[in-house]
Write a structure and sequence with these properties.
Layout: H1 8-34, E1 40-48, E2 51-62, E3 67-78, E4 81-94, E5 97-109, E6 114-121, E7 126-129, E8 134-137, H2 149-160, E9 166-172, E10 178-193, E11 196-207, E12 212-219, E13 225-233, E14 236-248
Antiparallel strand pairs: 1-2, 1-14, 2-3, 3-4, 4-5, 5-6, 6-7, 7-8, 9-10, 10-11, 11-12, 12-13, 13-14
């Protein structure tokens, strides 16, 4: 019995079809792999005067159209004081450049509650206060950030250039004003956290007029995830956040 002969043309078309199928699968799976930062959820312990007083969660999700949802949530309870905050920043991500699109902030607890919602049209220099339905003309400088998106930009900047020692981020506030947030390299340190022992790069931000100093630690071994934050105002400790766990959500 003779084997059936497959025409060369048919064989070529079959190979082409197989190649296209493989290419389509690659296109579906490649985007997440190419991102500098994978989707994740990180949990932190909030500490005040050496006592745990709450938890915080930092999360990153990839959306459609090269957009990213980056959020930070805290739940603090200390004596009769309570403070619950939730920030959500939706940004466009192009390589290692973050551009804010939407910013939402809510705060509930002891004292006055707060709520902000902004929409940014950076290309057309427009910022809209969604709570007041008011649009402002804003001359956005390069690398503009909102009050949360600069955290993500900071991490991407470190990934792109680990030797960088001076960082400046123009940040738009909840009143529509822009102010530069400046961080300086402050050394390397091996620290013990609830997560475990990690080697870190420490940066410092000092706001002289408010007598406030903020220290942040990023871990190169965790792709420069923020693993610790410590803030002092007028020589008095405000709070500290320490990494407990981090999960690759891979969405």
């Amino acid at each position: 019995m003779f084997n059936k002969v497959v025409p060369v043309k048919s064989l070529a078309l079959a190979c082409l079809s197989f190649s296209v199928s493989i290419s389509a699968i690659a296109k579906e799976t490649t985007p997440i792999q190419e991102h500098l930062v994978k989707p994740f959820i990180a949990e932190y312990s909030i500490i005040h005067k050496s006592d745990p007083v709450g938890k915080a969660f930092r999360e990153l999700k990839y959306l459609d159209n090269n957009q990213v949802e980056y959020s930070y949530k805290t739940d603090i309870s200390w004596l009769i004081f309570s403070d619950n905050r939730h920030e959500i920043s939706t940004v466009e991500l192009s390589d290692s450049t973050v551009t804010p699109v939407n910013y939402k902030f809510t705060r509930e607890g002891t004292g006055r509650d707060k709520k902000y919602a902004w929409e940014f049209d950076v290309k057309n220099n427009k910022a809209t206060n969604l709570e007041k339905n008011k649009t402002l003309d804003v001359d956005f400088p390069p690398n503009i950030q909102d009050k949360l998106s600069y955290h993500l930009q900071h991490r991407l900047s470190l990934i792109e250039n680990p030797k960088q020692q001076h960082f400046v981020y123009p940040v738009i506030s909840t009143s529509g004003k822009i102010k530069n947030y400046v961080y300086q390299y402050d050394g390397e340190e091996e620290i013990m956290l609830p997560y475990g022992l990690v080697k870190t790069v420490r940066l410092k931000r000092e706001v002289t007029e408010k007598k406030r100093v903020t220290y942040v630690w990023f871990a190169p071994e965790l792709n420069y995830l923020l693993v610790k934050l410590y803030q002092v105002k007028g020589g008095v400790e405000q709070f500290e956040a320490q990494l407990v766990s981090v999960e690759d959500t891979g969405n």
